[in-house]
UniProtKB/TrEMBL annotation:
<comment type="subunit">
    <text>Homodimer.</text>
</comment>
<protein>
    <recommendedName>
        <fullName>Triosephosphate isomerase</fullName>
        <ecNumber>5.3.1.1</ecNumber>
    </recommendedName>
</protein>
<dbReference type="InterPro" id="IPR000652">
    <property type="entry name" value="Triosephosphate_isomerase"/>
</dbReference>
<comment type="pathway">
    <text>Carbohydrate degradation; glycolysis; D-glyceraldehyde 3-phosphate from glycerone phosphate: step 1/1.</text>
</comment>
<comment type="pathway">
    <text>Carbohydrate biosynthesis; gluconeogenesis.</text>
</comment>
<keyword id="KW-0324">Glycolysis</keyword>
<dbReference type="InterPro" id="IPR020861">
    <property type="entry name" value="Triosephosphate_isomerase_AS"/>
</dbReference>
<keyword id="KW-0963">Cytoplasm</keyword>
<comment type="function">
    <text>Involved in the gluconeogenesis. Catalyzes stereospecifically the conversion of dihydroxyacetone phosphate (DHAP) to D-glyceraldehyde-3-phosphate (G3P).</text>
</comment>
<feature type="active site" description="Proton acceptor">
    <location>
        <position position="167"/>
    </location>
</feature>
<feature type="binding site">
    <location>
        <position position="212"/>
    </location>
    <ligand>
        <name>substrate</name>
    </ligand>
</feature>
<dbReference type="InterPro" id="IPR013785">
    <property type="entry name" value="Aldolase_TIM"/>
</dbReference>
<feature type="active site" description="Electrophile">
    <location>
        <position position="95"/>
    </location>
</feature>
<feature type="binding site">
    <location>
        <begin position="9"/>
        <end position="11"/>
    </location>
    <ligand>
        <name>substrate</name>
    </ligand>
</feature>
<keyword id="KW-0312">Gluconeogenesis</keyword>
<keyword id="KW-0413">Isomerase</keyword>
<dbReference type="InterPro" id="IPR035990">
    <property type="entry name" value="TIM_sf"/>
</dbReference>
């Protein structure tokens, strides 16, 4: 049984005050925590204060990125142990915006995943094809490439803590959600790839869908057997929307 997981990715939005207001509203929303796990990935600078606000609650707090290095002369980077130290329980890794604007490679994404795992921070590794790749019917080839290092280099034990988020780039922030059937097909492909590592692990691994998820389309996505939750961008900035998505994923 995979308990559904809904994560908000706030990206570079808001400030300390709006973040606190959003969390207060979420905490009052009577979320179905016995049926769905929830978390928010907030900007680094607000992790400490917002983490304190969430301390003792069922909403997990995480980061949007992590360094691929342990420590040292890496100006501007934030290490996995720093994130752990400040109370983060998970981190997004390899979001398409990081791959596009910061040219993150699959090797770096593997290194970041290893760093997170080494301190007990749960990695949520993002994969997905661009619009051009989708139109050229290259989705499976792209996903194979993005997942192959993780499949060959992580141990079965390490996979126990990994979550995958499938985010087709053409669906991010565009309002064009993937059809539940299309997303299911891709999620099943991803699960089959993980099964090359270990079949039990493949059955246990959560595969989230991301890309224009709203309260209105969450239930149809939830109905698919291999969609285990959502990674939500824009709609996670609106308490009612995010709460609605959490409820529709239970
Ligand atoms: O990138 C995303 C989450 O990481 C998805 O963003 P939207 O939900 O705004 O499409």
């Amino acid at each position: 049984m995979r308990i559904p997981l809904v994560l908000g990715n706030w990206k570079m939005n808001g400030n300390g005050e709006s973040g606190a207001v959003l969390l207060s509203a979420l905490l009052k929303s009577d979320l179905p925590f016995d049926q769905v796990a929830c978390g928010v990935a907030v900007p680094f600078v607000y992790l400490a204060t917002l983490g304190e606000k969430l301390s003792g609650t069922k909403i997990a707090i995480g980061a949007q990125d992590v360094s691929n290095k342990v420590e040292g002369a890496f100006t501007g980077e934030v290490s996995a142990s720093m994130l752990k130290d400040i109370g983060a329980s998970f981190t997004l890794i390899g979001h398409s915006e990081r791959r596009t604007y910061h040219l993150e490679s699959d090797s770096q994404i593997l290194e970041k995943t290893k760093q997170a795992l080494s301190v007990g921070l749960k990695p949520v590794v993002c994969v997905g094809e661009t619009l051009a790749e989708f139109e050229e019917d290259k989705t499976e080839t792209v996903l194979k490439q993005q997942l192959s290092k993780l499949c060959s280099e992580l141990s079965v034990k390490e996979w126990e803590s990994v979550t995958i988020a499938y985010e087709p780039v053409w669906a991010i922030g565009t309002g064009k959600v993937a059809s539940p059937e299309y997303a299911q097909k891709v999620h099943s492909f991803i699960r089959n790839m993980i099964a090359t590592v270990d079949k039990t692990i493949a059955n246990q691994t959560k595969i989230l869908y991301g890309g224009s998820v709203k309260a209105e389309n969450a239930a149809q996505l939830r109905a698919m057997p291999d969609i285990d939750g959502a990674l939500v961008g824009g709609a996670s900035l609106v308490a009612e929307q995010f709460a609605g998505i959490c409820r529709n994923f239970r």
